[in-house]
Design a protein that fits this description.
The protein has 267 residues and is of the alpha+beta class. Helices cover 19% and strands 35% of the residues. It is built from three helices and 19 strands. A hairpin with a 6-residue loop joins strand 12 and strand 13. The longest helix is centred in the N-terminal third of the chain and has 35 residues. The radius of gyration is 30 Å and the shape is globular.
Length: 267
């Protein structure tokens, strides 16, 4: 009797006490097949997991675009600023501070890069966040160095320093904004028009500078200490993603939701 025929007979006689020698042989053969298949599945899954971990690949949600901003080339030459003229700031940074124009992370990625959806979204208004985006002046630095807000979203400037500051936004499209701030003060402003890379400086401390990006949709991110970004909540479709860095310029790429997009700037 063939093993396949014996398997059918065994299944028709559910009680093992009714099995004959052929049934027992078929049972052993069938379980060997199942065991071999299970081993192959486990081994295959383990291989895929190992390969994913090795490559650093991260699963991408269907409504998201993820990626990193990479940097190649020589290390940027940055200016050093002594804070001896401001004792309170000097206490926070006794060795001074470096320019924030190009900040390269240990993993060869970039901080302070704006990533946003430039094109491909439905032509409709998006809800305006009511929460202000806060910028602190601490240690004679603007923190954070780059922010993104939506059109007419409040931006709040704080002063945590003992020193006085003078915040001066110098837009190309929006209105000029210039206000003095003593310690502990807070000032709020809004910008009604789309604008990328709006410089903001302190008129008292010339090394202090940051950038505001004013956008018409909520699909954006600013890279941090690992150079990565995630843009969530996108409808299915293809989008034009633009990245902006204050010294290295812009790049664009067409990307579908649910995929990865890495950008590389060369120094």
């Amino acid at each position: 009797m063939s093993v396949r025929v014996a398997e059918k007979i065994c299944f028709n006689h559910c009680q093992p006490s009714l099995w004959n020698a052929d049934c027992l042989l078929a049972f052993i053969t069938m379980n060997r097949k199942l065991l071999a298949t299970s081993i192959l599945l486990v081994t295959g899954n383990a291989f895929l997991i190992a390969q994913t971990a090795k490559s650093g690949a991260v699963p991408v949600a269907a409504d998201s675009i993820i990626g990193k901003i990479l940097y190649t080339g020589p290390a940027p030459v940055l200016k050093h600023h002594s804070l001896n003229s401001e004792p309170d700031c000097d206490k926070k940074h006794p060795t001074g501070i470096m320019s924030q124009e190009i900040v390269v992370n240990p993993n060869h990625t970039l901080q302070n890069v704006l990533v946003y959806v430039k094109d491909g979204l439905p032509n409709k208004p998006y809800p305006l966040p009511a929460t202000p985006v806060k910028v602190d002046q601490s240690g004679c630095m603007f923190l954070p160095h780059v922010i993104a807000v939506m059109v007419n979203q409040p931006v709040q400037f704080l002063n945590s320093d003992a020193a006085s500051h003078n915040v001066h936004a110098m837009p190309a499209v929006n209105r000029d904004w210039n206000v003095a701030q003593d310690r502990g003060s807070a000032e709020i402003t809004k910008f009604p028009k789309f604008e990328i890379g709006m410089p903001v400086r302190c008129n008292i401390h010339k090394w202090m500078q940051m950038y505001i990006n004013v956008l018409t949709n909520p699909f954006y991110a600013v890279t941090g200490k690992d150079g990565s970004f995630v843009i969530k909540g996108l409808p299915p479709g293809e989008y034009t993603i633009e990245v902006w860095q204050e010294k290295l310029g812009t790049q664009t790429l067409k990307v579908k939701a649910g995929t990865r997009a890495d950008f590389t700037f060369k120094g």
